[in-house]
Design goal:
The structure holds two protein chains of two kinds. By secondary structure, chain A is an alpha/beta fold. Chain A has helices at 43-50, 77-83, 100-107, 116-121, 124-144, 159-171, 189-204, 216-222, 240-245, 247-254; strands spanning 3-14, 17-28, 32-36, 58-63, 70-71, 85-87, 177-181, 208-212, 225-230, 233-238. In chain A, helix 3 packs across helix 5 and helix 5 (124-144) crosses helix 6. Chain B has helices at residues 2-18, 27-52, 61-78, 82-101, 109-129, 131-134, 164-186, 189-199, 201-206, 211-237, 247-260, 265-285, 296-310, 321-324, 327-341; strands at residues 140-141, 147-149, 158-160, 239-240. The chains are: A alpha/beta, B mainly alpha. The site of magnesium ion (MG) has 3 residues of chain A, from helix 1.
């Protein structure tokens, strides 16, 4: 099985705080990996290191964008997106004053080309691209079930729909690797149910997924492989059953009741 | 609905075109109208930074000054035609815009505001002290008016802009040109990238937008528009002095776009109409109360406080307004409605 992302000895220090301490794991192409751990464990920090928002203090991150794997630690966010890494945010970061459609069109930015002169002169190529952008964006909206709300203001959407829109915006950049940061947070059970379907549909599109989530039922049901962080340290790794029975994980995160859940 | 609004637009256009022919259109009234047009262009140009990209620019008239003095110097010393000077001044403005923004690219927005504030002071100091080039505080009189000379085509025909009327029409053309360009950019990949930077720079970068590159384009474009307005102004007023380009002018233009609605192109125009017209009225009214005309700044301040209190988004608060009315989106709207009904 091919590795799409390799985290090798990554540490991230914020002043005196070691948010990630020598963490290593691999993400297999076409699979879904769950990243779990208690609050403040360093999960989001790991995402930020992968997505180019932070530069790891130590360690290397290699990403296989097709062809040979390249070392990407310290790349800028837009470079990572261009290479095929997209992400959603734990605290939703939509372009709230813009319509739903524009959020996805902006998400598709790196797969389009027209610039200043195309916009001013309205060349044939520019018009064709604008038309294509709308059509493609609608497809992504349709995929997450928001097509009928394409022209609504994105801040007017419900919480669950905003999370879906973030996923559509991320997918619009045609990622090979999608990082989902607590996509089920704030969703009701029904919305969570359809999120599971959505994640399965994403995997079927040949997109590799890394999922941070506190909803253990969700994580255990869809992730084949889990990595557990605690205080910046990787304390366990393995399949759902293994993790559920791991005494260290129970101690740090799941609590004693979880093994029987 | 669309038929009605096009009819209304046509009527407005006719009114604008017929305006100089009206009996009340004295040279003074036309002068104020042209002044409004110059400020409308400035307001639209400034709007690119705080309105589209959320970059607070406190020194925009620096580019107005650079454009004006470029036009003045090239016209006076080298006898260059207005039509040649415009692209040169705009290009120089764009270059200065990028140079001014470059040091702030890696810093947060607040630093940008500080640098822009320093920039206007620098421009005024330069214009005041480089006497060999700008004649300093004496100012630059005798700049020739705009002319249209077809001798380069082999046709012996020449028209000099001797009254306010031709400036009115040229100004109208300039406003229309800048307006169309602004709208086209707002409703494009570039415009959306700018708006995403305004909304959330981190999310924008995660969408694949190179913040530095897109901010640089904004710096260049905004500055080029300011220089264009300066060019026109120099050949219209035919006299330049450094203190025309003081900080207060930048502040006035900023008030216009805040009043009209940050990020809204129509708002920029409406804001300039309101504030320039108000300024002219106050100039006549204030002396009657024994107040110096500078007290008009108090009135501007009062107006800004009122707008902040009662309509904090400005007269037109919507952003990305052009896109909403574009053919592509109107078609999509109809399609979605049909799908919902069907
Ligand atoms: N930019 C930063 N500056 C300083 N400290 C930070 C920064 N970002 C994160 N931290 C710290 O790093 C630690 C890990 O934070 P992180 O957000 O990665 O946790 P998390 O596992 O995502 O937690 P949660 O489940 O609550 O989202 C926390 O102690 C946090 O306060
Ligand atoms: Mg987190």
């Amino acid at each position: 099985m091919d590795t799409i992302l390799n985290i090798d000895g990554v540490s991230k220090r914020f002043g005196g705080l070691l948010a990630l301490a020598d963490v290593s794991f691999e993400v297999k192409k076409g699979h879904i990996l769950g990243l779990i751990g208690p609050n403040g464990a360093g999960k989001t920090t790991m995402f930020n290191c992968i997505a180019g928002i932070y530069t790891p203090t130590e360690g290397t991150i290699t990403f296989d964008k097709g062809g040979a794997p390249v070392s990407v630690g310290g790349s800028r966010p837009e470079q990572m997106t261009q290479m095929g890494v997209a992400r959603t945010f734990q605290n939703i970061r939509l372009f709230g004053s813009l319509p739903v459609l524009d959020n996805v069109r902006i998400g598709r930015h790196c797969r389009a080309a027209q610039g200043f002169w195309g916009a001013v002169l309205r060349t044939k190529a520019q018009k064709a691209e604008e038309k294509l952008l709308v059509e493609q964006s609608l497809e992504y909206l349709d995929f997450v079930g928001l097509k009928h709300k394409a022209l609504d203001l994105s801040s007017s959407l419900s919480y669950g729909d905003q999370r879906r829109l973030e996923i559509a915006r991320a997918l619009a950049s045609q990622p090979k690797l999608l990082l989902l940061d607590e996509p089920a947070a704030g969703m009701n059970p029904q919305e969570t149910g359809s999120l599971v379907d959505l994640i399965h549909a994403i995997l079927e599109k040949d997109v590799t997924v890394v999922l941070i989530e506190h909803d253990m039922k969700l994580v255990m049901s869809i992730c084949e492989h889990l990595v557990v962080l605690d205080h910046g340290v990787k304390i366990a790794e393995g399949g759902p059953r293994e993790i559920r029975e791991n005494p260290e994980v129970i101690e740090a995160y799941l609590g004693r009741g979880a093994a029987h859940a | 609905m669309t038929g009605q609004s096009t009819a209304l637009k046509l009527l407005g256009l006719c009114a604008l075109l017929a305006f100089p022919l009206m009996p009340f259109s004295s040279e003074y009234v036309l002068h104020v109208a042209v002044l409004i047009m110059v400020y409308a262009v400035l307001a639209m140009g400034l709007n690119v930074l705080p309105g589209f990209c959320d970059l607070l620019d406190l020194g925009y008239v620096g580019f107005y000054g650079i454009g004006a003095y470029t036009a003045g110097i090239l016209s006076l010393n080298y006898d260059m035609s207005f039509w040649v000077v415009v692209p040169l001044a705009a290009a120089l403005g764009a270059l200065c815009g990028v140079l001014r923004g470059a040091p702030t690219l890696r810093l947060s927005g607040d630093y940008f505001a500080i640098v822009t504030f320093g920039f206007t002071e620098l421009v005024v100091l330069f214009l005041t002290n480089e006497i060999w080039l700008t004649r300093g505080p004496l100012g630059m009189p005798g700049i020739p008016p705009i002319d249209i000379n077809l001798s380069w085509l082999g046709i012996d025909w020449r028209y000099d802009f001797m009254s306010e009327t031709p400036y009115y029409y040229l100004g109208l053309l300039m406003v229309a040109f800048v307006y169309v360009v602004m709208c086209r950019i707002e409703d494009s990949r570039l415009g959306r990238a700018w708006l995403s930077i305004k909304e959330d720079p981190l999310a924008a970068a995660s969408c694949g937008i190179n913040l530095m590159a897109y901010k640089s384009v904004a710096f260049a474009f905004s500055a080029a528009v300011g220089a264009l307005a300066g060019c026109f102004m120099a050949r219209w007023s035919m006299f330049l002095a450094p203190d025309v380009f003081k900080f207060w002018e930048s502040f006035l233009v900023l008030c216009m776009i805040v009043l009209g609605g940050l990020g809204n192109i129509n708002g920029a125009i409406v804001g300039s109409v309101v504030l320039i017209a108000l300024g002219e009225v106050l100039r006549v009214v204030l002396p009657h109360f024994g107040l110096p005309t500078e007290t008009r700044f108090l009135a501007y301040g009062l107006l800004m406080i009122l707008i902040m209190r009662f309509k904090p988004g400005g007269i037109f608060p919507a952003i990305a307004a052009t896109s909403k009315k574009s053919r592509l989106i109107m078609d999509l709207k109809a399609r979605l409605q049909a799908e919902r009904a069907g």
